[in-house]
Amino acid sequence: MDKNKVTTVIQITDTHLFKSDTHEMFGVNTNKNFYSVMDYLHEQKEITPDLFLLTGDLSQDESEESYIKIVEKMNEFGKKIYWVPGNHDNIEVMKKIFSTSPLFLPVKNINLNTWGFILLNTKMNGSDKGFLSENELRYLEESLNNFNDQKSIGVIMHHHPVTVNTPLIDQYILTNSSHFWNIVNRHSNVKLIMCGHVHGDYSIKHNNIVVECSPSTCLQWEKGTIELKIVKSIGFKVYRFVNNTYAQFVKLWS
After folding, report:
1. With a threshold of 0.70, does the pTM exceed it?
2. Using CA atoms, how far apart are residues 242 and 180, in angstroms rounded to an integer?
3. How far is it, in rounded angstroms, from Cα 165 to Cα 222?
């Protein structure tokens, strides 16, 4: 184990893609913005990812074609891709389309050198709010017990388990977050929670654990807003893991 090895992870989230490249969400062409982010990642030189993390709401219309667009664009990087569903996703369609690529890995945990990650499904059918089923909570507990105590642990899911003080999106939080925290707080090596869903860059410390939320590739919600207010910017989040620590930065542009 090389404790000094740096692993670079790019988080892509809330792409909200459609079957058609002409469809829009709230007046924004989400497909076009996703392609712009992918083009930027191809053209830039400063970020060399070791893997990608997709944190849900990848489709807006749940079509096969929307997920095919993800596969086609992200296969070009030749890197491993891990994913969790969001409230707008169709899990069975995701599995079907993502299984066509060996780079899209249908796993529930990730082992890096000194970090381990647990991937959870927070989708609650028929609701935009999040929920962890008994099976997911049990899996979380078992995984935390099974990971080496020397590893730092990150948990990856779509919905945020703490408020970000933007009421527009906080009404769609993880509804049984108390159950989640009851489990996580018993394990001192959990250092990080990585989420999508909030359409914005947030880093919030809760019980000595940092909750990191990434900007969307399509649009952001204005921070602090109660009403539907859009910020027409696009972006992603980058993490660099080394030893038992990490650093993050955001790439965001209009």
Report:
1. yes
2. 26
3. 11
- pLDDT score, position 150: 83
Residues 136-162 as b/e (b if ≥16 CB within 10 A, e otherwise) read bbebbeebbeebeeebbbbbbbbbbbb
Q: What is the pLDDT of residues 103-115, one digit of tens each?
A: 999 999 999 989 9
Domain ranges of the chain: 7-253
Tokens at residue 235, please? 């972006």
Q: Which residue has the tokens 């990848």?
A: 58
Helix or strand run (H / E) with residue 177 = helix 177-184
7-253 — its CATH code? Answer: 3.60.21.10
Residue keyed to tokens 């399509």: 218
* Residue partners of 194: CB distance under 8 A and separation at least 6: 11, 53, 55, 117, 154, 155, 156, 157, 212, 214, 239
Q: Map tokens 């009421």 to a residue.
A: 167
| CA 169/CA 201 separation, integer angstroms | 13
Which of 105, 31, 107, 45 lies closest to 73 in space, CA to CA?
31
Spell out a b/e string for 192-226, using b for 16 or more CB atoms within 10 Å of the CB, else e.
bbbbbbbbbbbebeeeebebbbbbbbbbbbebeee
How much is the CA Rg of the chain, to the nearest whole Å?
17
* Residues 233 and 220: beta-carbon distance below 8 Å: yes
Rounded to the nearest 5 degrees, what angle is found at the Cα of 254, between the Cα atoms of 199 and 59?
40
DSSP state of 105: E
